[in-house]
Amino acid sequence: MSENPAKLSWPTLLLLLLPPLLWAGNFIAGRAISAAVPPVTLSLIRWSIAALCLLPFALKPCLRDWRDYLRYRWYILGTALTGVAAFNLLVYWGLHTTTATNGIILNSFIPFLVALFGYLFYRQTLSFYQLLGMLVSLAGVLIVVAHGELQRLLSLAFAPGDLIIFLAMIFWALYTLWLKAIPAHINRTGLMLCQVLIALVLLIPLAAWESQTRVIQLQETHTLWILAYIGIFPSVIALLAYSKAVTLVGSVRASVFIHAMPIFGSILSTLLLHEVFQGYQLLGMVTIFTGIWLANRKIT
Asked: Phi and psi of 297, rounded to 5°?
């Protein structure tokens, strides 16, 4: 079967663009404190902050929908394991032994993995425009990471961390598909609290083990501010928006918007790190958004 090709409204479009914007910020923030906070501890702190932010709003619907959680327990457990606990942990771990450029390239394979797994396990089919859009937007990503130079792309070297990050991409693709399988009538805020609590149960023993061998440095004020950002914006707000977007437009169409991450990363680097915005970044931006438009073109 194919996914719903409904036309995008402006509110839905903004909902789809918000997660890659906030996740691009998470990418920069996570790298900024990678030396001070090891990956498991970073994930544990991130989701602990998210749980505290969610509690006032999510506790009531979480308790109300517990029967639905039991009914769809395997999908909920699966999404908590893949999208909440494992994905960011593996990304933080992988980035210790590979480059940001490689991470961006691997991240760009998520829409293709979603489409592949959707076809293999759920008999989802792609329209011509969805496939074309994914290929065009991927080309835009490669323009950005290669700085518009083919030789730079051909000279990329891959490290052990790339395998770890690619495993994270597989987990995110599964998370996206399983999220679509959880009915829309289940409150997404309560569902996220349930997923985060499951993830915390999984992360606590791993963090205890990590603390025996890694030093954690939380003395700097800027580290605490970065942790607060990571725990609120790319965690709570972005995941809630992505969950709602998958419900509205389907897994494949929502995942294509992940290709916007390197563009938002370039914009944030220009604004926050005062880097010069280059011509190849503009070309990549136009190409990526052309691909996103093609992938979301309404079929008549």
From this structure: -65, 135
| Residue 33 belongs to a domain | yes
Q: What is the residue range of 186's domain?
A: 10-295
35/39 Cα distance (integer angstroms): 10
Crossing angle (nearest 10°) for helices 261-272 and 279-295: 150
Instruction: Identify whether 3 is part of a domain.
Output: no
**Of the candidates 79, 82, 83, 103, the residue with the CA atom closest to the CA atom of residue 92:** 103
172 CB-near residues (< 8 Å, 6+ apart)? 82, 83, 87, 110, 113
Q: Give pLDDT tens digits for 181-195.
A: 999 899 999 999 999
Q: What is each CA distance from 6 to 128, 179, 252, in whole angstroms?
A: 15, 19, 13
Residue pair 65/191 in contact by the 8 Å Cβ criterion:
yes
pTM over 0.85: no
